[in-house]
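Re: [help] complex structure
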Amino acid sequence: MIPQNFEYSAPGNLRDALALLAGGNAKVLAGGMSLIPLMKLRLAAPEHLVDLGRVADLKSIREEGGTIRIGATATHYDIESSPLVRGKCPLLAEAASNIGDVQVRNMGTIGGSIAHADPAADYPASFLALEAQVRIASAKGERTVTIEQFLVDALTTALEPGEIVREIIVPVEPANAGVSYQKMVQPASGFAIVGAAARVRKSGGKVAFVRVGVTGLAAKAFRATGVEKLLEGTSGSPADVQKAAAVVSDGADANTDLHASASYRLQMAKVYTARALTQALSRAS
Amino acid sequence: MATTITKTETLVGKRIRRQEDPRLITGTATYVDDIKMPGMHHACILRSPHGAAKIRSIDIKPAQDLPGVAAVFTGKDVEGVGPVPCGASLPGLRVPPHAILAKDRVYFIGHPVAVVVATDRYIAADALDLIEVDYEPLPTVTDPEKALAAGAPAVHPEWPDNTAFLYHQEGGDPETAFKEAEVVVKQRITSQRLIPTAMETRGVVAEYRSAEKSLTLYSSTQIPHLLRTLVSQMLGLAENHLRVITPEVGGGFGSKLNVYAEEALMGFVAMKIGKPVKWIESRRENFQCTIHGRGHVDYYEVAAKRDGTVLGLRLKLIQDLGAYHQLLTPAIPTLSVLMMPGLYKFRNVTADIVGVFTNCVPTDAYRGAGRPEATHGIERMMDLLAAELKMDPAELRLKNFIGKDEFPYATATGLSYDSGNYAEPLKKALDLVDYHKLRQEQKQAKASGRLLGVGISTYGEICAFGPSPATPAGGWESATVKIEPSGKVTVMTGASPHGQGEETTFAQIAADELGVPIDDVIVVHGDTAVVQYGIGTFGSRGTAVGGPAVYYALQELKKKIRKFGEMLLETTDVTVSGGQCVDNRTGKSVSLAQIAGASYRAMKLPPNTEPGMVATYFWEPPNFAFPFGAHIVVSEVDRETGHVEIKRYVAVDDCGNIINPLLVDGQVHGGVVQGLGQALYEQAVYDDDGQLITGELMDYAIPKASMVPWIESSHTITPSPVNPLGVKGVGEAGTIGCSPAVVNSVVDALSHLGVKHIDMPMTPEKLWNLVHQGGQA
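Output below.
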């Protein structure tokens, strides 16, 4: 429970932070809810930590051109309690409020979470359903990628050495949309055994728009386009929802661990997808 | 002389907030890790990464060379230190020698191999990484039934059958009972290995003063005096040169009712390096190296008549002991056997225990210690019998309870139940849940496809340990009560409370007996240089054995108060009341401060009376106390996920007279939560290679506040005749009563699917499989 020695920097602005990271040997600290436990167990031993906690403007949450832009060091609590996010991207606020416990939500950040890419993290389901974009910065410049490009594999992202997550960009949700995030909680860690995020819109008595993201089931979170296609154009009846949710696990290589076998996870993905869709539909107008 | 002021309000029986709480909730309490000393060094312990291995060689040189490292010790350095003690004795018990550091072989994950002492904890941890140990891994066995199978790896090569002991107990004529039975129900029931998970891990600070040859150990323990006796023997130190101080203890639950290798090891290190040394256990070490609880595989058989009358009980108990015996390891399952009949009139019982070595950390006392296992077994069996006979489980229990007029009741296992009225809490709990209406609701719910269940558990437990002949180290408890010259009252208890709240309950008793405000009383404990010898707090004995010691010490003190009062008031008939000694004839009085002042000033003494105002009492309990109660759980299983929702939790506990209902509520709540943990979430999982898979709180699930239902707690009161306070014990009752009520409710919810039994923890996946695969888990 005692980490190895490391150098620690806490730059006050983004340029300094990116300069410190440019060498490629430093590791980013952005809340530390995953990294610090790994270091205490000596499963990670970075030589240099660059703490983004004091970088000005990196935790801002703002609306711009039909999108909400969330700074990388916004904490889960900032997000769940932000009137802007709650009002205009309620799915993300709901996902944030489901993370860990109060202490974790007070310390953990959205950028830290996504850059760690834990396969059981809560956010990715919502990011996928929201078709979020990730703005990446380094000393060399910036680039923006889609969430699907960003998430490469378990604990692996598209970030190159020297790059950090600068912002997450999500769309402003139309007022008539319905959203929901439903998770089965791993009782020890609070992570998702499976988590399903759903966004729906109705039009003329039909389901006009469906987006579904699933986390926890496989090595990386994924968008369940099969479910989306099956539900779009239906009346959204309970039978329609069940039928659509039933394909969520198709082709998935399910995780297995102490808390849930692969076959159980596959079943639970269907259940929680159906629950998320049902609640989203009930919230859509 | 002052006029009489009578304090009319008594404190015993009142919901008084704990005297302990201000320091605890403001973060100002002192735990072992808060202790800092000039020149203090820090120890880290290198532990085996293998479940079993030979140690071919250890190279400590690179660690020794790291700047800041003061010393590194391995098994061969500590050969002069005595073994970690096992205080339990059973006929034919095999006791493996348990050195404080492994020398040539390790037996479980986390087995201590070397200790590094450095100027700070970071250097010590870095140095651990530099020690090179050449291990030859060996096959391991971590499952007790597999360990008994032919050809299993031998945990200790000298005992290839992995059997530490066999124990048989019998009462009545079980053979005839089973022969004459009209119905016999059988079930294999497990009580899985649990990790006690005290919020504060263990920790030790050791300081040696060589000129005085005196060692002080600060340790997070439940038993400071026993620790002093045993560690002084291990270190070859005169007992009166060892002082043990127990600062604040952040939870023990039995896991600190022990003498651990690290306690002697830190003493050894401090004596070697001549500097104070601190060791604080990490959470991972706590999971790997502090004792676990439970670890039973039980095979039960109940013989009964068709009308539900129970005749006989048969138990084969396989106890997973782990690799060694800690202080009480082999004794714990014998408590299960003593309590196996529960509250019922089983006159014919037979039990066989097999104590099994495995490549795991030892099991030992964990909240309930043997009684949760026994209660779980018998309460599951009563439900199985009720199901077999198509009887209502409440009715079956009421039919077989020991009657309220049969106490003291001699059980077939040789105990004498002190007092009881077992039907009363059950009837009260049934009323509270509106049982008949609830069964109707359940019928409707099941008809509509919902999986609603009602589970009953009626438990009895043995506590207030205990009469000395029946305990390994003496079962009495001690108290000293002093009135200081100013009139303030100091109580010193040999019990070492650590969260139970006796600083409050003992102050209530003293304040009432002397008629002083509670704020005039302080309760001191946990320092062997200050407090007279005592036994400690465990087995729900703090108030039930420590309390009477305080009470009797107060009676002794009051005799002396009266003598001085009579002298000062020049009378022969006085009463101690309201903080005064009152002349019963004239109403004149003197205050306790005046009396205490006179006793210390000693200008004049009553005949045959020493100066001072101090009394000490060592109270030997004539029997254990046997609390009991009924817990009823209403639960619903989510058909889609297997998740259990506890819809109601009703606990009716009878712990005799209640000194502080607020603290009793707290004990019931905490106990129930730990029972829920066993029923639904917790299990220490070792893989076949001996790795502890649940090695962190990320994987070992204890209930969090959000996972705990509302607990409706109420009581019946049947005073114990064993002690003058009429108290029993309540520290473990919640845990003991809980798990069978939860499991019975879930089995009841799934019974129409053919489910008869479910082993713990009842995880959603396990239940989902039962629901979706026709009752097969």
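The mean pLDDT of chain A is 96.
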